[in-house]
Design a protein that fits this description.
Elements (H helix, E strand, L loop, with lengths): L3 H4 L2 H9 L19 H11 L8 E5 L7 H4 L4 E6 L3 H10 L5 E5 L13 E6 L8 H14 E12 L4 H4 L9 H10 L2 E7 L6 E8 L2
Parallel strand pairs: 1-2, 1-4, 2-3, 4-5
Antiparallel strand pairs: 5-7, 6-7
The structure holds S-adenosylmethionine.
Length: about 210
């Protein structure tokens, strides 16, 4: 089970990258480039690009090296929520520290300092696949609090019904039924559910109720 402590090891993984241990490119490229890998291109087009709006506020959980953050940069404000604040230095270097990027360190499920109803679009990819359901449950409540009514929450999570996820002990015990029930019980309506594109996970786009 990938716990919060287990997830602190990403900071060491970043250092490994900085020392050249993960090859060329940016930290995160090792998991595939949403510019060129067909499944990730499809995710970008369906779940991210339609929501980009320079008048609105985005929040990303687990920004890492900015593999997806780069597409959020056109938003008026981008709030990067991270368990490992070491990632923030990397993001500042990568994007030349633009003033509309905000950095929030979480204990693993909370979103401190962000006002209620402040966010229009929340996104997370490559993060909830490694979070146990009770931690995700905490995040669903936290996102509900900061997201305005009608705001959108796009999340990718582990689907243990898929053999690739079932065989990976670093993937958390989750599936679309449990994730849907959790979101609906927190007042979200499922707008889109994609169980096809990713071989080990599922993506939901959900709207916050009023
Ligand atoms: C596999 S990396 C993915 C990074 C990025 N989202 C991407 O797709 O390239 C997981 C990231 O989530 C962060 N993380 C892990 N657990 C977290 C948590 N509970 N809350 C926020 N961030 C977390 C890690 O520090 C790391 O940056």
């Amino acid at each position: 089970m990938p716990t919060i402590d287990w997830n602190r090891s990403w900071a060491r993984n970043l250092i490994h990258h900085m020392k050249g241990g993960l090859g060329e490119g940016h930290y995160g490229d090792q998991w595939g480039d949403p510019e060129s890998r067909p499944d990730l291109v499809a995710v970008r087009r369906r779940f991210l690009e339609p929501f980009i709006d320079p008048d609105r506020v985005a929040l990303e959980i687990g920004s890492g090296g900015g593999r997806w953050t780069r597409y959020l940069l056109p938003f008026r404000e981008v709030i990067c929520v991270e368990l490992n604040p070491e990632m923030f230095g990397y993001l500042k270097d990568r994007f030349a520290d633009p003033p509309h990027l905000q950095y929030v360190t979480t204990h693993g499920w909370d979103i401190p300092f962000v006002p209620e109803n402040h966010v229009d679009f929340a996104f997370t990819f490559g993060v909830f696949v490694h979070l146990d359901l009770e931690i995700i449950s905490g995040y669903v409540q936290s996102v509900r609090h900061v997201l305005r009514p009608g705001g959108r929450f796009v999340l990718q999570f582990s689907n243990k019904r898929k053999p690739e996820a079932a065989a990976n002990p670093d993937f958390s015990d989750n599936d679309p039924d449990r994730m849907t029930a959790l979101l609906e019980s927190a007042g979200f309506a499922i707008a889109d559910l994609d169980d096809e594109t990713m071989s080990h996970s599922t993506i939901i786009s959900a709207t916050a109720g009023s």
